[in-house]
Amino acid sequence: MSRASDRAYGTIREMIMSGEFAPGDALGEEALAERCGVSRTPVRDALRRLEADMLITRTGTQRSFVADWSLDDIADVFELRAMLEGYAAQRAAERMDDDTLKALRACNAELRKAVSTSPPNVDLFLERNREFHALILESAASRKLVALLASVIEQPVVWRTAHHYGEEELRRSCSEHDEVLAAFARRDGDWAEAIMSSHIRRAFHAYADAHRGLTAIDKSGRMRMA
Amino acid sequence: MSRASDRAYGTIREMIMSGEFAPGDALGEEALAERCGVSRTPVRDALRRLEADMLITRTGTQRSFVADWSLDDIADVFELRAMLEGYAAQRAAERMDDDTLKALRACNAELRKAVSTSPPNVDLFLERNREFHALILESAASRKLVALLASVIEQPVVWRTAHHYGEEELRRSCSEHDEVLAAFARRDGDWAEAIMSSHIRRAFHAYADAHRGLTAIDKSGRMRMA
DNA sequence: GGGTTCCATATTGTATACAATTCGAGTCGG
DNA sequence: CCGACTCGAATTGTATACAATATGGAACCC
């Protein structure tokens, strides 16, 4: 898309992701426009996209605020992701061709490489991991599924805390990917669905455990994301 | 939201739904603005929303076209809807309170009333049916699920063809709703999920059968929506 | 003190003008 | 006849000005 609108989107998104804006903070169009060096018009576009991403919420009068997520909300998103990615894996298994399978194997090999160093290269891991899941999603061949998962997959919270994964968790992820590949090789949709769903669920609990250790949860059940 | 932007959204949506614009038609902002009696600014807002609804698609250079749906695409959407509504029903069953259950029973009673006349009052049926499913979705208490289902639930194709349901299908829908309610009354999440999922799947096949009888499918596998 | 009304201010909605880009027809050369 | 190129027309992107509306606090009444 266009330059200014994209820059606004990226800039605001980054500010939210990095925690520069805390959940609940008000986001005025004028202020954002100045901060991004563009006019309000592309900012409004960006805000619409960010709303779709659920990174911001809007009041009845269209005022924007940084979304805040309760632990329940986060669990919720992971649950949906587990379901949708499981479904994607099932469809992918039924449609898998040998070329894609080879590509997935290569991708997971690189994942292993990222983990084998010490300390592990987490950024590379995340990039390859994203690629792995993207390949599967593509193989699922469902336009709507792509749209749904896109809105669920890149959540701010998850993104920021992936760095807290331990080496053991990273390694286990690779093993689970292997099992997904085995299911693909046998075109076993149910197996692929089950293992993928469980893969995502484990990721959530790893996240929740790590996060519980790092941040306090106040009496209302909300946790600080910053 | 604001008046002009809403009017643009509603007007364009209606034009697509009614078939005034055929799938594949180009939608210029200027032309739409004039047709809606507003300027391009609110039209651009509306187009963004319609894109999220997947009622229109956009090229790499942001030109807009009325989306066209293959039979596979439609099957796809129903499959996702079956999964998501099944999940919603499961969560709803686990959280169901007596007041909501009573409201659902009343709602289904009205559904029956809409069917009992001859000819059946299809508009009333659709309205109450929407209410029934909305109540369940609300009880599921998942913000993200609401967002996902919203983008899947009101598809143009489905909406327009619901009128083709036969009296027998309408009656069966009520019975299936009864079974969902029975599952709710027992707080049996798995049962609720299974019956709801099957409810949606049956709706799809009823739609597909009715539609196959009414419209031709050309050699590319695409079907006319108008 | 608690609540209400009112108004200045801030914020969002819309229209319009203009810049940047894209599309496609027509042309030229092979 | 086909393909690459060019340029005018059409379309989208952005900035800005102004209108409409919401917000928050001060003044006010009970």
From TrEMBL, chains A, B:
Question: Which PROSITE patterns does the record match to this protein?
Answer: HTH_GNTR (PS50949)
Limits of the HTH gntR-type domain: 2-69
Please name the CDD domains in this protein's record. Answer: WHTH_GntR
**Pfam families registered for this protein in UniProt:** FCD, GntR
Q: Where are the transmembrane segments?
A: none
Superkingdom, taxonomy of origin: Bacteria
Write out the entry's keywords from A to Z. Answer: DNA-binding, Transcription, Transcription regulation
Provide the protein name.
GntR family transcriptional regulator
